[in-house]
Input
Amino acid sequence: MTMKKLTKIKLNELSEEIYDSWQISFIKLTPAIIVILFIAVITNLPSRMLIINVVKEALTNDKNCPISFRDVDFNFLLSPKLLITSPTIPRTCTGGSDDLFFDKATIELGPPGLFPLGIKFNIDAENADSKIIATTALTLSTHTLKINDTVLGDNTIATLLGSESKNVSGSFTVDALVKFQGKNVTSAKVLLKSKNFSTMPQSSAGIEIPTINFGNFLLKSEYDSAGRLNILEMILGSEQSPISIQMNGMIKLKTYDIKKSQFDLEGWIGISDSILENPAFKFVYNFVFKDHQTKNGMYQFKITGMIPSGPMMIKNFFQVLN
Output
């Protein structure tokens, strides 16, 4: 089975756009914390305990997302730095199935931005299977969150996705740039990678799907304020996988009900003989692929419309082109 290359669309550089920051989900700084840190740097505020007490109160008394912790420390060595031991973010903040726990988190004040004027923070947080590295910046009107070389493990993903996590397995590396204005996303660029990605047994459109070990996973995507998720490049699997997929296109997201999202994607899919030993996949193959030709061992396809509610609607949603 030969993987067919799609035309790659380069993802815009993520490293330079940093002065429109985002209110972070994994550690939420309140305006009080930001003001105290900034004043401390400018005035060389001598009372370290005053800063610590203000930060503790701000974290625990945030009505939207109170964060618990074991200890908070603050120092001015080289640059102002806030050290939080055992921070725990409640599930009401993340929308996950459980509280999100970290062993430690560090928030360091970076050099101020001048064009536009803003304050930048470097954030590190880690637990047993994940390490988050991010930069967040604050201007008068906009926010940006930049995530670099972040690793999200199975346990953290399960906590964040809740019941949805039962459908997937694997650890991911994440690079992202997300821009906000107020509480609204104005744009986002995301790069996700995994070397051990699998989908778990599940039912889709009335068909029972077994575990599929794809191994390789790559997603380059961009999101805009109109709710369009542009899939610049998506790769699942490799020549050795039971199924391999490459595709790109656009999804018009309906965040209130993902099943009502509108898909417009096209790509190539390779199907191994081993996967056809499964009755469910054999049924799908006979129903969808059997009468079509392959090119270099792969079928060309397009996906349009909403996710089908039953197996007889698959052909309207997923069409083989050859």
About this structure: Residues 16-182 form one domain.
